[in-house]
């Protein structure tokens, strides 16, 4: 089944998040400690992704253009509205947690290169091995995140599934007009841009900054477009 990896990834987030909900009632000081550890872990992931960047200038340009687009369309505000709507629908008693969990969870689960690599691998070769590995990692991340953010993290499984499924569907078409070396460069750029976004998420979780990370989402796709554009020169 071509979407088996995407489905497994989404289910892993749901199951991990559901288990994490059990621990939402632990003492606040323990949840705070978990949140800080998680923030440090996400920062570490971000640094690892950025260190591998081969074109940091493209990463910077992608982030600037992406943030401007996000700020103009007020993307994070739109995501927050959706989250708050879910709060009303679900009667979440941890006010604001759903929107925060949705945005943070969605960014963490989709910005990594594994989603793109795994989606391309599934679409071009019918192999879901990379996505199964990603699902295992996301299971534990969702479990820990839900203790702090609540059920919003579980909802992020929906855009994660459609994101990966879209990559799988478009993989065959992409391969028809984008050379393999350009695809590799695109994946590297997504990883670098995603690493910076993860750094922002981690710093927010540690209350060091209060950046609107939701508005950074367009940067991921801007980076891919720039790499594709530069391949003609």
Automatic annotation (TrEMBL):
The chain crosses the membrane at residues 6-26, 56-75, 96-118, 161-178, 190-206, 213-231. The keyword Thylakoid does not apply. Coiled coil: none annotated. It holds the Pfam family DUF554. The keyword Transmembrane helix applies. InterPro entries: DUF554. Keywords: Membrane, Transmembrane, Transmembrane helix. It comes from the Bacteria. This is Membrane protein YdfK. It comes from Jeotgalicoccus halotolerans.
């Amino acid at each position: 089944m071509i979407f088996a990896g995407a489905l497994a990834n989404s289910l892993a987030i749901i199951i991990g998040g559901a288990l994490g909900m059990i621990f939402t009632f632990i003492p606040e000081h323990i949840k705070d400690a978990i949140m800080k550890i998680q923030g440090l872990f996400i920062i570490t992931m971000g640094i690892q992704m950025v260190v591998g960047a081969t074109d940091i200038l493209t990463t910077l340009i992608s982030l600037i253009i992406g943030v401007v687009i996000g700020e103009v369309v007020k993307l994070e505000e739109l995501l927050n509205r959706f989250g708050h709507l879910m709060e009303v629908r679900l009667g979440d008693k941890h006010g604001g947690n759903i929107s925060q969990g949705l945005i943070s969870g969605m960014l963490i689960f989709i910005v990594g290169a594994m989603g793109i690599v795994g989606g391309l691998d599934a679409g071009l070769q019918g192999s879901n091995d990379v996505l199964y590995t990603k699902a295992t990692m996301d299971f534990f991340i969702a479990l820990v995140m839900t203790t702090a953010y609540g059920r919003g993290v579980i909802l992020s499984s929906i855009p994660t599934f459609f994101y990966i499924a879209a990559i799988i569907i478009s993989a065959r078409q992409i391969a028809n007009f984008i050379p393999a070396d350009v695809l590799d460069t695109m994946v590297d750029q997504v990883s670098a841009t995603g690493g910076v976004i993860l750094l922002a998420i981690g710093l927010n979780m540690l209350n060091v900054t209060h950046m609107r990370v939701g508005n950074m989402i367009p940067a991921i796709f801007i980076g891919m477009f720039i790499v594709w554009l530069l391949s003609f020169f």
